[in-house]
Design brief:
The structure holds 2 protein chains of 2 kinds. Chain A is about 30% helix and about 20% strand. By secondary structure, chain A is α/β, with parallel strands linked by helices. In chain A, helix 4 links the parallel strand 9 and strand 10. The longest helix of chain A is centred in the N-terminal third of the chain and has 13 residues. Chain A is globular, with a radius of gyration of 19 Å. By secondary structure, chain B is of the alpha+beta class. In chain B, about 30% of the residues lie in helices and about 25% in strands. In chain B, strands 5, 6, 7, 8, 9 and 10 form a 6-stranded antiparallel sheet that branches. In chain B, strand 5 and strand 6 form a beta hairpin. Classes of the chains: A alpha/beta, B alpha+beta. At the A-B interface, helix 3 and helix 4 of A face strand 5 and helix 6 of B.
């Protein structure tokens, strides 16, 4: 899928499968062996949850600077540890439990279905997978500059606020869509940055989980409210205070976008 | 996985957090003296519902509570104490570190209280004396080191998502955990098999089903999309009956069992299914829905987009199941019927 989209995949790594090929791409036993033969800027991890942490450490130790972890169900303590390990060493992790990212018309690092994206000016950042495809599809002719799914886990390598700040600096992005959900405080942090005037570009927010009960996990490990932290209401209120327009449904996002962009 | 109070207290003992002497029983027993009989339920608010009782007649109290449908009890010694505080540990999602949450007042509703502070303990070092000192100064009691250390160990070694003591009693002999609330990380249960065996707990299935109170069954693929579907039902005037995310790449069998699961809830009168396929194949989904439709026999409204969409739609239509281009019209029709 990524190959078809034009992403340059130079190597695969599967312990014990070194020396073979998949779709014409050479496979190595370790990341270091792959690095001897190729120049590598980014790595993507699909391995099962029990082995995903090790794969992340291996990529960090090999000096790769961008790692996308697609894998779901990694214990949260393990995620906290490898995210910290990577950060200290200057490696960015996206995910885990995420669909990855796409720059429409250029490259795909993940599992997003390319046909629902087109080149344009909206930067979309999301804690979700399929809902991101849906919203991108609905944004339609406006198209997207970059779409990033940061992942549905309680602790992730790259936060909503980091991506929003990068969109704010990105020349190709005119407006930003945030697809949030209950749990955690990342949406509140974005709202705070907006209030402090640290984000200039227009933002449209959507939060899933209006009808979610407390202390129940809604599919994503991160979509859970403990001790009243990160409720639907708190996020909506934070957005409103920061003058970030909120779409009640994904179907309203496009209309609100056209209004804020025209301004 | 949420643990019962007595299971949480077993874990407390393993990490040297003192708990009252007690026993777990499943039928009435006589115990000498003043005791606390505590119904073992996973829901909160037991005290308010009268399911925790101080008594000198343990036998009669258990008999009464059994009539209310409770079947497991923790009988504990009654512990006189001078004050109560609140302590818990969990991961701080913002910084990726464990943290201690503390309040000088125990037994409170921690969500509503203003007297709460968090103390982050960086994950790359161990607990230090000055961490403990800060918590002790805040709550105004010296002698919490073993409790704090124990809570932290539950997070870091036992993969607890939440370990809460509310209240922690201060007695003549030091602190004592009067209650426990422990939730373990489902994704880490595979490395605690011995503990699960000791607690006689099976690993929970990784199915995402959450039951709600309405009558419109909800199935989707992807947590965000499924939640959005639930929310849409509510905003359009209906009431969702559940949350069920079949996940990425769901096959015929998985979809069929999801539809049966949702459809077998007696409150459910109709089912809305919202599928936006990336890696999910619509024809597989359709076959699963058709298979279950014959058993469930409740109206189903399906929104289907993605890989092999046309085939999927044909399969559904040929069995008289309504298919839609977008979730709004699927839900709209479901609510009007």
């Amino acid at each position: 899928m990524m190959l078809k989209y034009g992403t340059k995949i130079v190597a695969g790594v599967t312990p014990g499968k070194g020396g073979t090929e998949v779709n014409g791409v050479p496979v190595y036993d370790t990341v270091r062996e792959a690095l001897k033969e190729h120049e590598i800027d980014a790595s993507i991890i699909f391995v099962p949850a029990r082995f995903a942490s090790e794969a992340a450490y291996e990529a960090v130790d090999a000096g790769i600077k961008l790692i996308t972890v697609i894998t779901e169900h990694i214990p949260v303590i393990d995620v906290a540890r490898f995210v910290r390990y990577a950060k200290v060493r200057g490696t960015r992790i996206i995910g885990p439990n995420c669909p990855g990212l796409i720059v429409p018309g250029e490259s795909l690092l993940g599992i997003l279905p390319a046909k629902y994206f087109r080149k344009g000016t909206v930067g979309i950042v999301s804690r979700s997978g399929t809902l991101t495809y849906e919203v991108s599809h609905l944004v339609g002719d406006m198209g997207q500059s970059t779409v990033i799914g940061i992942g549905g886990d309680p602790i992730v390598g790259t936060s909503l606020q980091e991506v929003v700040q990068e969109f704010d600096q990105d020349e190709r992005t005119e407006a930003i869509v945030i697809i949030g959900e209950i749990g955690g405080t990342m949406e509140e942090r974005v709202a705070q940055l907006k209030r402090e005037g640290k984000i200039r570009k227009p933002i449209v927010g959507y939060i899933a989980g209006l009808t979610a009960p407390r202390e129940k996990r809604m599919g994503h490990a991160g979509a859970v409210v403990y001790m009243g932290m990160g409720t639907f209401e708190s996020k909506i209120e934070a957005f409103k205070k920061a003058d970030i327009p909120v779409a009640k449904t994904p179907y309203e996002i496009r209309d609100i976008l056209t209004k804020v962009v025209r301004k | 996985m949420k643990l019962y109070e007595y299971e949480g207290k077993r874990l407390f003992s393993l990490v040297n957090i003192p708990v009252p002497r007690g026993q777990v029983v499943r039928s009435p027993v006589h115990v000498q003296g003043k005791v606390v009989v505590k119904s073992q339920l996973l829901e909160g608010g037991r005290g308010k519902r009268g399911l925790v009782r101080v008594t000198e007649d343990s036998y009669g109290t258990i008999e009464e509570l059994m009539k209310e449908g409770v079947n497991t009890f923790l009988i504990e010694e009654f512990v006189p104490h001078s004050r109560e505080i609140y302590l818990s540990a969990m991961m701080d999602r913002e910084t990726g570190n464990p943290m201690i949450v503390a309040s000088p007042f125990g037994g409170i509703n921690i969500e509503e209280s203003k007297d709460v502070r968090t103390f982050v303990i960086p994950i790359d070092r161990k607990l230090m004396r000055y961490d403990i000192d800060a918590v002790e100064k805040y709550v105004g009691y010296r002698g919490l080191s073993s409790v704090i250390e124990g809570l932290l160990r539950l997070i870091l070694e036992y993969d607890a998502e939440l370990a809460e003591i509310n209240p922690l009693a201060i007695t003549e002999n030091g602190p004592l955990a009067l209650d426990s609330k422990v939730i373990l990380d489902d994704n880490a249960l595979y490395r605690h098999e011995e503990l699960l065996k000791e607690l006689q707990r099976e690993k929970v299935p990784t199915d995402s089903y959450v039951e709600l109170e309405g009558d419109v069954g909800i199935i989707g693929n992807g947590a965000g999309l499924t939640m959005a579907t639930m929310d849409l039902v509510k905003l359009m005037g209906g009431n969702p009956a559940d949350f069920l995310d079949v996940g990425g790449g769901a096959d015929t069998e998985k979809v069929a069992s999801a539809v049966i699961r949702v459809g077998s809830n007696p409150r459910v009168r109709k089912i809305v299914i919202n599928i936006f396929g990336g890696i999910t194949r619509c024809d597989e989904v359709a076959k699963g829905i058709v298979e279950a439709y014959q058993k469930v026999n409740k109206p189903i409204y399906v929104r289907l987009t993605g890989t092999n969409e046309e085939e999927g739609k044909k399969i559904l239509q040929s069995h008289g199941i309504r298919v839609y281009e977008d979730a709004l019209s699927a839900i709209g029709d479901a609510l009007r019927s």
